[in-house]
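Researcher: I've got a protein sequence and the SMILES for calcium ion. Could you write out the 3D structure of the bound complex as structure tokens? I'd like something to compare against our soaking experiments later this week.
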Amino acid sequence: MPATTRIRRWKPLALATAAALAGLTASTLAAPPAAATTTAYDTTYYKNAVGKTGTSLKSSLHTIISSQTKISYSAVWNALKVTDQDPNNSNNVILLYSGVSRSKSLNGGDLGDWNREHTWAKSHGDFGEVTGPGTDLHHLRPADVQVNSIRGNKDFDNGGSTVSGGGGSLTDSDSFEPRDADKGDVARMILYMAVRYDGGDGFADLEPNEKVDNGSAPYMGKLSVLKQWNEQDPPSAFEEKRNQAIYDTYQHNRNPFIDHPEWVEAIW
Ligand SMILES: [Ca+2]
Ligand SMILES: [Ca+2]
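Model: Sure. Here is the predicted complex with calcium ion in place.
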């Protein structure tokens, strides 16, 4: 499989500089759209989606990514040991929210263990742990048992007090803010779930909204904050590698927002 190559077609800064040299003022320039990216999959996997926007893009992506292999909840343990392996220590996984590197063998439910975090909280739409959204690796990450418990089923938003052992993550009574390095990852996982699950397969239609008290409704907030986080924390090599591993080895589908983060703005 070819590695995903991210090529910026043009850079807003370079354009602004060129415009300044040409004697134009910045105010004469239209605000540039999020930089378009091209990937090795645009002429194959994403062929029917490229060039579309809005509900048409969302619908095309839903069809594309819904063709997938599904794995059981018990198989998720070993998959995460591969997808989330510490690039500097093959005995460990990197934990979401805290960024801690922890032994793969410490998977479990006790204090000091890591477990399987449903970034889209499984109670939001009540999909549980049966094969389906509850076992979809694109939003499952290893997390510290205690930090996972603090996050619980809260929606995502900015603000709160420091989460103990949370790597800089914050929380208050109704929301959770991941550490900066995980903000974009969380946004892209949530929005993947919204596109992938549209009410078929016997599961709820998952969608983002602007609330932080969604409870068991099949919604996750806050969309405006998730969009900011997607811009603020672009896809990292770690995130791209895990997307590739899920595609190559486990589910054979991709998270379009890791390949094309600008598609977040194109849809929402
Ligand atoms: Ca990140
Ligand atoms: Ca949906």
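Model: Residues 7-33 have pLDDT under 50 and may be disordered. The longest strand covers residues 89-94.
Researcher: Great, I'll pass this along to the crystallography team.
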